[in-house]
Amino acid sequence: MSRRIRTTAAQSAAPHTVHIPRQRGKQGPQVIVVVSEPPTLTARATAASGRWVWKHRRAWAPTGLAVLALMVTGVVHLIEPRTAWVLAPLALAPVAVWAWITRRRPATSRTTMTWRALTSAGAAGVVAWVPVAIWFSPTHPAVALSWALLTLAAQLAWSIAGRLATTHPKESF
Fold first, then answer.
1. What is the mean pLDDT of residues 79-96?
2. 20 to 30 A from 37, CA-CA: which of 12, 54, 133, 171?
3. What are phi and psi of 75, to 5 degrees?
């Protein structure tokens, strides 16, 4: 019978020890080899998706921020839903910034004017979504649908603006 020590417990991610029997005729020290278990399929899939997310983190920034906003509004809704009344007037802030920029720095092209207006409208929609989500709950079907649509619109705008910024570096939006 072999003198190897085998683990009888369930497979785990922790390393286990394998004792190699002494060779006949040699009186040297016993050799001990520590071998780690191969990663499970779940661990490999998790590591691969984590590497993919880290590699493309800049491209998916709006989605990450939207998920963070969804979680924060859920927590605030559970703690104090009346916070929505304090945050509701902030929905006009992007429109005020757009009006201020339009007066201070007039747009030189129609594209710049369109991008500024669309950015202001999108930001106003997002900022208005926060108090609505805090008051009604972010899991309410209408609020969740508006979150999904705003996230999709922000992700598309981010992707388009990223491509335009790399193709036309001299043009200012």
1. 93
2. 54
3. -65, -45
